Amino acid sequence: MGISIKEIPETTIFDLRLSRRGWRLNKMCAALCAPAEREAFKRDEEAFMTRFSLSEQEKTLIRNRDFQGLIEAGTNIYFLLKIGAATGTSLYRMGAQMRGESYEQFLATRNIKGAV
Amino acid sequence: MGLSHVPSVGPVVDRGRQAEPAWKPLFDAYVPVREWLQKLKPDVAIVVYNDHGADFTFDKYPTFALGAADRYGIADEGFGTRALPEVPGDAEFSIHLCESLIAQEFDLTVCQEMGVEHGFLVPMNLCFPHGPSGWPVRCVPLQVNVVQHPLPTARRCYRLGQALRRAVESHAGDLKVAILGTGGMSHQLQGKRFGYMNEAFDQWFLDRLEQDPEALVEITHHRIMEEAGAEAVELIMWLTMRGALPLSAKRVHRHYYAPMTTGMGLITFEG
Question: Do B146 and B236 touch, CB atoms closer than 8 A?
Fold first, then answer.
């Protein structure tokens, strides 16, 4: 008996089906936990993506820094953060993009914006 | 103790920014908690937490994983390894917990090597800060899958806590044991709802945790995610902590602060 979770608007639920779809992306992100791999990514992003057998569509999402697209393609948010670290994109900047806002617009919606 | 494990707290501690106006309310709330812990002097802390892709990846993803080592390394989760001392474990005590829990039909993954990251370390920074001689308490990490659905139910997490209490009580030694349930509270880190928080839900959860945890365990993942954001589902780990305490446990501290994208809750009990 399988029980899948009901959808929630404006929300991606990371389940096994999505995890399988994002398998290569999450493998690549996990590698970024090693400093030498982060350097390899920064040195030659294209070669790095090819090494992890990313599809052309997945590569395009990374080239475009399309964070919501990457989430929908099965990248887990905590794994996506490792790309953020390697490319100098903070969680809050990723979040602003996912909301369709500038970073400043996003910060303006927060209770205490100094807590970054 | 139940408390959030917001990653941004780590660099704030490492750079000594605790007194900045945006962070002071959070750190001030932990001053009485640390004084209380210094009086109670627990020998061991069981830390119920989740890894964020530093040591556990989706090739093999355990539902519950318990550390059984004498030390736990500091893991690099993609931002570099924080300059923190290794965390002391208590392998003998962990082995006893494994034996008891598995006999009680909690079929855990047992880890003799585990690296810990912000999910574990931020609560340690807040409750058991390290000094020149290291951390003041030995630890048992208990990693829970709150990331890749299907997740264990809230009730299952609570029952694991009850089983942990029986395991601790059946230990022959005379150890004082603290348990920390970490994560949450309301937050969502993806989609158009990025940054969503719900203080009313968080306060309700704290009330129920205090007064009626046996009713709270009926909560579904869907309800937590809908009302408090997808990543708020980490709150099921607080139920493991609550299950390990008597129903009559007395609440000691309670605090709530929601500056940016996560409702940061804190609650402590004695019992």
Answer: yes
